[in-house]
Amino acid sequence: MNNGVSQKKDFTAAMRQFVFDNKVFFIFIPLSILCILISGANVSYIVGEVASRFGRNTCLVLALIIPCMAGLGMNFGIVVGAIAAQISIFWVVHWGFTGITGMLLCVLMSTPMAIFFGWLLGKLFNKTKGAEMIAGLVLGFFAGGLYRLFTLYILGGVIPFDDPNLLPRGFGLRNAYDLTGNLKYSVDDISFLTTAVVLGLAAIVALLCSALYDKKKGKAVNGKALTMQLVLSALVTGFGLIGKSVPALNQLYGQKRLILADAVVLAAAALLAYALWIFAGKRPAKGSKEMVTVIRFAVAGVVLFASNMVPAINKLYRSVRVPAMTYALIALFALFNNWIVNTRLGQNMRTVGQNRAVATSAGIDVNKTRIIATCISTVLAAWGQLIFLQNLGTFNTVQQQDNVGLYAVAALLVGGASVQKANNKQAITGVLLFHTLFVVAPLAATQLVGDSAISEYIRMFFSYGVIAVSLSMHAWKSSGGKRDTGADGLTASMLATQSPAASDSPLSE
Amino acid sequence: MSNEKVKKALDVIGVPRLIVFLFFIGIVITAAVNGIDVPSFFSSTLKYWGMWGILVLAMIPSIKCGIGPNFGVSLGIVCGLFGTLLSMELGIVPKIDASMPGLGPWVGFFFAILVSVAVAWLVGVAYGKMLNTVKGSEMTVTTYIGYSIIFLMCIFWFRAPFSSGEIVWPLSGVGVRNSVAMENSFGYLLNDFLGFSIGPVYIPTGIILFVLLVCLFVSLYFRSKTGIAITAAGSNPTFARASGIDVDKMRVKGIAFSTILGAIGIIVYTQGFGYLQAYAAPLNMGFICVASVLIGGATTTKATISHVIIGTFLYQGLVIFTPPVSNHLLAGTDISDTMRQIIQNGVILYALAQAKGGSD
Q1: What is the phi/psi pair of residue A487, to 5°?
Q2: Does B236 touch chain A (CB under 8 A)?
Q3: Record: contact A468-B145, CB cut-off 8 A
Q4: Where are the domains of chain A?
Q5: d(Cα A6, Cα A12) in Å, to the nearest integer?
């Protein structure tokens, strides 16, 4: 009898696990489709809106991946990164820099600030092990208060800052600030060709630097691979340069925004080229892992091409424009996250995230690793906020940062991430789904209720509800399931001595 | 030697508590020196102390039962709002007043309490059972549940099938309007009951008495057998289990009690405010309650009723005394909300950092 009960328990646990692991497909995708159907909105409107929101928000979401890997859970503290970005914008705007120069200056200014804030945040997280998420959340509010004190009273009041445009009363920033004419679209408006030139050159420099570094360290450099990569980067650069001088190409790819249809063709070509590259370079055996990758990429490329051939879809693609540089930066953020996993630092972070006791006994400085992870996240968040603001074009000077953490975390969780595990794919799926819902849910509600005033409540309920459900499902799983996974680094509350679930764990002395 | 003593004393009092206390004293002295009407602000501090008292008191059972400060007190708050609205919708106050003049508001008030306690008990038990499945991350989960319930209820309030002219939106005839005036129900009932003035200071006797009564009840409850079992389950679950206490059940009782107190608390708050504000108005009340009890000297694992009484007074005193002082000193600027945000969240952060202070 006992056996029967435990079997039943196992079965329900397995079911629960299955639903939880695939919650994206069980809950959010059907929900999105349902909302789209109810709202009856124009599909090209939805796609355009989601494409622009994707460019705006994804970098902020990608900033959450590294702390998650280091066992810090969802980093609600990215708010401090956003604050660093906003402070840098005040000065850059004040000094009168515009366009991409201003943007680069913002990056230059906000990075050290973000590193400093991240260091403080990491210190706090080390003091509140096991309660990082609530600590990050409260810290966000606390930092918001200090930021308000700074922008409303200290700036101009204590620090001399003479700018009637920003401070109409002599002190205290104005409530909303319009970035039109200085920073608005400074990244978005970089054309595809310029992006290709910049990225190609950057890749060449990076490749040479890393090769030199390896040589200095005495590591073997794979000459053939390096040459191939260099040639590829040079090709990209060359394409950009040639494109700029050929009017036809310039007309197609030199515009401020790339038409989605062209982007799709390029992406399909890139996918096919990549598949061919692997196939030709490695000659994978039938059924091997690489062969599967090749087939996957080839199929994806063909499907993209084919979709562009369908008139209805082509029309849709033609109606949407995407910012090339912003999307390239998103790809770079994602590549950075992938790259860091394979470095020694990344491996240390993973060990720390899995089990702090094991990490300590392996000689890893747990606290330092956690601080570094937080710093990286904060810097990425600062850059993400810069990208966000240059696209939005106007910002609420005092409160803009308030919901940064909320929306980023909610998007990541919608993508199927959990508090312990998150990756780029989940971040990207999450942003697409979350913002689709964000766009269509209010429309659907308006259709159902007949009043648009309700939409803000629905959005907020949805964001908070997603986090509440995900966190409780996660905690549920980790307190009901195995106890020796080191999950307590995340889930053990500060009440470790009080809570029986946590006090059984070896980690929460 | 003396250095150690100072450090020990600081540990006992707590740095943020000391700062907040000194800050409060400083503000009051500055106010007095600058000729600001201290007695009248002192009166409002008393009034707000009464209005917030029970809401802050709701932290006691949840801390005692081992869940920690209940950031999700909003669950109780929406129950209380529902009870109040139901009492208004049914028109209990005018109906009773017609036959027994003067008794109406009291019946309406206690009817609201009765209804919301019943609802809050049901909600609280379900909430407690849910929190038993997320042991270890209660604070994060309660925070987000608290937030999402507020917005879920926003959707409900917007289209709730009320019909009383006092409640509904003037145009659509349904839902709950942004702020519902309570003149014709039991607004200011406790504030005015037996109130008297000592010179310029108005003492809202009714509300003070009510809060003290509820405090007494809570304190007696925690001396009863169940109360002691709850405290035991919270302070040492392993030991409690060994002595035959059902820890999970005690946690459910504790959080249900906290939710009930939240419901009563918002009714007392609403009658003192004179207007019922549904929608997002109670969004941050959970944080304010947590900060108040922490300022009063509680930690995330230990709290007493005196912490509630002192903490609420200090917090409300700060909120009420800072605007006039900053207005006076900084020529027409109100820095108080910013100060409130910093102090409130700083105190919570300090408590969080203390609770696990650098442990590994």
Answers
A1: -65, -15
A2: yes
A3: yes
A4: 2-187+323-503
A5: 10
Q: Tell me, what's the pLDDT at B280? A: 85
CA–CA dist A183, A394 (Å, integer): 10
Contacts of B154 in chain A (CB under 8 A): 457, 460-461
Query: Tell me, what's the ipTM?
Result: 0.88
Q: What is the DSSP letter of A218?
A: T
User: Which residue blocks in A393-423 are alpha helix, DSSP H?
Assistant: 404-414
Percent of all residues in chain A with a pLDDT value above 70, rounded to a whole number: 89
CB atoms under 10 Å from CB of A456, counted, come to 13
Percent of chain A residues topping a pLDDT of 90? 24
Instruction: Read off the pLDDT of residues B208-226 as tens digits, 9 standing for 90 and up.
Output: 999 999 999 999 999 999 9
pLDDT per position as a tens digit, B301-314: 888 899 999 999 99
**DSSP 3-state of A82:** helix
Q: Cα(B259)–Cα(B117) distance, rounded to whole angstroms?
A: 8
Q: Which CATH number fits domain B2-355: 3.40.1620, 3.30.1050, 1.10.3470, 1.10.3210?
A: 1.10.3470
**Neighboring chain A residues of B342 at a CB cutoff of 8 Å:** 142, 145-146, 149
Of A450 and B229, the one with more pLDDT: B229
Residue B194, SS3?
Answer: coil
Contact A493, B141 (CB under 8 A): no
**Inter-chain touch B358–A127, beta carbons under 8 Å:** yes
Q: How confident is the model at residue A456 (pLDDT cuts 50, 70, 90)?
A: confident
Selected residue with higher pLDDT from A352 and A453:
A352
The per-residue pLDDT for range A484-504, each reduced to its tens digit, is 333 333 333 333 333 333 333
How far is Cα A15 from Cα B172, in angstroms, rounded to an integer? 45
The 10s digit of each residue's pLDDT in B35-70 is 888 888 888 899 999 999 999 999 999 999 988 888
Q: Rounded CA gap, B81 and B276, in Å? A: 8
Number of CB atoms found within 10 A of residue A181's CB: 10
- Once rounded to an integer, what is the mean pLDDT over residues B89-97? 82
Smallest CA-to-CA distance from A151 within A400, A391, A381 is with A400
Cβ pair A476:B241 closer than 8 A = no
Domain A2-187+323-503's class? mainly alpha
Q: Which residues in chain A touch residue B338, judged by CB atoms under 8 angstroms apart?
A: 145, 148-149, 152-153
Distance CA B220, CA B227 (A): 8
8 Å CB contact of A152 and B335 = yes
pTM above 0.80, yes or no: yes
- Kindly calculate the radius of gyration of chain A based on its CA atoms and give it in whole angstroms: 24
Between these two residues, A168 and A124, which has the higher pLDDT value? A124
Token pair recorded at residue A225: 């691979």
Backbone angles phi, psi at A258, to 5 degrees: -90, 135
Q: Tell how strand A394-396 and strand A321-322 pair up.
A: unpaired
What's the rounded Cα separation, in Å, for the pair B138 and A279? Answer: 51
Q: What is the pLDDT of residue A107?
A: 94
Give long-range contacts, CB 8 A cutoff, 24+ apart: B159-162.
Answer: B159/A449, B159/A454, B160/B85, B162/B85, B162/B89
Phi, psi (rounded to 5 degrees) for A497: -70, -20
Interchain CB contact of B151 with A (< 8 Å): yes
Token pair belonging to A163: 């700018």
Of A153-167, A219-233, A314-328, which one has max mean pLDDT?
A314-328
Between B360 and A8, the higher pLDDT residue: A8
**Residue of chain B nearest A508, judged by CA positions:** B360
Q: Which of A493, A497, A509 to mutate to test the interface with B (most CBs of B within 10 A)?
A: A493
Token output for B157:
């309030």
Separation of alpha carbons A155 and A324, rounded Å: 36
Question: Which residue of chain B is at minimal alpha-carbon distance from A492?
Answer: B136
User: What is residue A416's three-state secondary structure?
Assistant: coil
Nearest to B300 by CA among A498, A140, A136, A139: A498
